[in-house]
Fold this protein.
Amino acid sequence: MKKYLLMLISIMVITAIHAQDFGFGFDDDNGSGAGGKPVSVDISGEVSAAYLGFVHDFYKGADHTRLGDVFSGKLNFSAGTSFADGVINLKLQPTEQPLSIDEAYIRLFFGDLEIEGGLRKLTWGKADSFGPLDIINPLDYSELTDFSDTMNLKIARPLIHASYRIGSFSKIEAVFVPAFEPLRYATEGRWVPVQMKQLSQFQSPPVYAVLHQPYKKTLSTIEYAQAGARFTTTIGPADLGFQYYYGRLTRPAVAFAGFPTNLLFDYNPYHQIGVDWAQVLFGFNVRAELAANITNDVKGDDISVYNPALLWSFGFDRDLIWGINLNLQCNESIRLMNSKISNNPLVFDTEAGTDMTSTQIIAAFSKKFLQDKLEARVAILWGIEERDFLLLPSLTWTRDTTTVELSAGIFGGDEAGQFGQYWNNSFVKVALKYSF
């Protein structure tokens, strides 16, 4: 805790020193820094107070009901000139780690060339959420109570990113990520995935401890470095994108030979080749992505490596009748060489017992009232093969910089599914937020 408080104090001191150096309009250089270049400084953020309760706990009585941490907040600092800018975004919460860095990076401008480095969240692809091409940042599934913005789920990664604009409509990007981070799951409490609990009967210490502890040093080596390039352009009414990425699958591959024995874990390397497209057609804002994930198991018979797969996403949004807006998206992955998956119980294949396809429908209906101050919204994430869902109704009132929200999350369906396993974690939330 002390180091984070020291970091915050340091930020404030540095900001104050630069405020004096650059004048901010209080001395003769009219707010200019060295060389007479004007400096802009911005501090923003939000303060939230929320009560979140789990419906299943209500039935157990008041002595089993907790309303969680009431306070949370964000502090965003940015400062820059026409040549460079720096950003530090912080998260605040009343926990053992009250202050954490959400993003922190510096960006340099050289005409049409931009170079940035630091702890960063990037979005690649055209899909609104969970698109197959948006693979630079892994996701944090340690608590599934906020799906309103996928950026909140992303884990910032240390990286170097460069982009170069070609004319008015084209851009080429390149990224280098020197270390690897997998998907993040809860290691204790109500959000531990049932799959980890099942695998842990074969492993001591528990599988989630194995996944999160011994690999920390290994995953930070150059062997797990990742890199990619992306080109986007506009041709007529269509926005197009093409990308290549070399990295590691964020879901661990699990295998063992014989029974009982220790489980073997690794994060498989793969190449991704992808293309995306966006266009307005007949009043529909259409988006699509297509990708091929090519792993080292090109024959499909390696039990410890995921098979190659094709992934696609198609979605659109459109205003319907009575001012109702629909945002609909379908994501699917298709495993290749599926017949080579081993179902021998003594030779555990990492993909044994799973479907060849994984399909998810994401739909959201919304309508605004009272001069757009009040919004009613219902979103659903529906797993086709897993026969489960997450339903997210909400009612949000906004006036200027103040927001009041009443929302809920309802998990249901097959108890072995990604969402259905959390059927007793359905929740309701009341939140008040002020932005500045």
In short: Confidence is low (pLDDT under 50) at residues 8-17, 19-31, 204-215. The chain has six helices and 21 strands. The longest strand covers residues 40-54.
